[in-house]
Amino acid sequence: MVMTVEPAVILRAADGSSVRIDQFPTVLGRFHPEAPVQPDCDVSALDPQSWVSRRHLSLDVVNGRLVVTDLGSTNGSWADGQPLVAQQPTAVGPTAELMLGHLKLRVELEVSSPAPEALGQTVVAGEDQAMAPSAAPPQPAHVDRIEQAVARPGEAVAVPAGVVEVAGMAVGAGAPEVAEPILAAQRFPVLQVFNDPTVSQLVVQPGRVPRLEQSGRWVDAIGPELSALDWDKLMAVWAETQAALDAAGGRGVALLDDALVAEVILPPAAAEPTLLVQRRPRPLSLDEMVAAGRIDDEVAAMLRHSLGLGEGILVAGPAGSGRTSMLGGLIGAISPSLRIAFVERRPLARLRSPNVFRLRYPATEGAAVSAAMSIEPAWLVIDDAEAGDASEAARRMAGGICACVVAARTSDPRWWREYASDQLAGVIGDADRARRYLNAVLPLTVRLSPNRERLTKGDVSRA
Predict the structure, then answer these.
(1) Which SS3 state, helix, strand or coil, does residue 370 take?
(2) Does 3.30.450.90 match the CATH number of domain 146-279?
(3) Domain spans of the chain?
(4) Which of 10, 311, 355, 383 is the S-S candidate for 108 at Cβ 3.0 to 4.6 Å?
(5) What confidence tens digit (pLDDT) does each residue in 351-386 have?
(6) Which residue from 186, 185, 187, 207 is spatially nearest to 196, judged by alpha carbons?
(7) How confident is the model at residue 349, as a pLDDT?
(8) DSSP per position, 145-209
């Protein structure tokens, strides 16, 4: 028996086609006339090179959450840049980028059920599939106190309509956002505050009231000070579930779910023991930035064209300007068939591309390039780069062995370029040649500002 399940799911392809699925579980795959069992949703027309298996991936809605499962496909599946383990159901957010082999699809959980546009395609689940209605969507909630924010596995929290800040870039003005459930709060109850989507950072120190960055303002959490005993318990859980602290520096960084990055800093690296937790920005493609009104369509087309030609880009901007989000958009615009080495100090970027190798930033300035080149990438991307990284990239890549995207924490990209050029001139002994090398490797500059609402053509320059 076929049962209708709400909410529905919208599946979108890169060519603009879409289909509304309201019967679950639904199997995506490639139709083959001789196969004994066919997929529920045939994506053959979008997959001319047959990267997609006949029964590649299952879509389901469980307790109001979207769950995807790779069905043992030949070429693998990814959700928001993370590889899926075969036959292991994985919960994703209300919107997610899926990769089936090399086929990119966007899936959106539809909490309401508007009449769909004419799609020219019908999805029908097989009669022998067991169907069960999903739980009703949760009621809107807003968290004002730590003890009120209760993380429940599989529960999404709807928030009022408004603007959500994504690393300095406002997204979805006037449209309701859905908060990602913070499953790590089951181990770290103090993280329950992040069930409020307006909370972007949390600072916890023993003997102090936790501090929150909420809607761009730092406020005290409502509740008692964190006792020394509670801090010790927190660190004990950290030690059990995360990587051990660096004994020399007293630091440790870990991802909590996909939504948060946590950093513990202990003396002597910090004056006081500190836990800093930051919400990772939602991944946005260049097209999504255009749709949100954050960049002009002409700028997005210019960036895509440069990337297609293998031209390097310098992304320059101070803290809060959206450098990490822009890097994610640029990485997403690079062909998924090309290997990308991504060097980062802290794992803030949430990447959708399955062809990215994430590398930790080394301790020595300029060593990031050497570390990345060991995996022979087609593209090198460095977040929060030093000028020495750019000069080393120019020295090694002027011959075109690899393309480069560099994000620099600066509000003056011209000065930053000159500093990098001077460092390279000190190595090769020729200032003019150093400048030419740097401009050849990073011909384009994108200048970001936390005070600028929209990125226009005037913010992009060519060396």
Answers:
(1) helix
(2) yes
(3) 8-110, 146-279, 286-462
(4) 10
(5) 777 788 888 877 666 677 887 888 889 999 999 888
(6) 185
(7) 79
(8) SGGG----TT--EE--SEEEEETTEEEEEEE--EEPP-GGGGT-GGGGGGGSTTEEEEEE-TTS-
State the Cα–Cα distance between residues 174 and 128, nearest whole angstrom.
42
Task: Kindly give the parts of the chain with pLDDT less than 70.
Answer: 1-6, 111-187, 223, 240-250, 257-258, 363-366
CA dist., res. 350 & res. 342, Å (int): 12
> Domain spanning 286-462: which CATH class is it, in words?
alpha beta
Burial of 422 (0-12, 13-18, 19+ CB in 10 A): middle
DSSP string, 144-159: -SGGG----TT--EE-
> Span 8-110: which CATH code?
2.60.200.20
* Distance of alpha carbon 337 from the chain centroid: 19
Going by C-alpha positions, the residue among 247, 276, 244 that lies closest to residue 261 is 276
Instruction: Give the H or E element holding residue 435.
Output: helix 431-441
Helix (H) or strand (E) holding 57: strand 57-62
pLDDT score recorded for residue 452:
82
Distances (CA, A) of 117 to 18, 58, 411, 455: 9, 24, 45, 32
Distance CA 151, CA 24 (A): 26
Angle, CA 328 vertex, CA 327 and CA 334 arms, to 5°: 90
Q: Which amino acid is at 424?
A: L
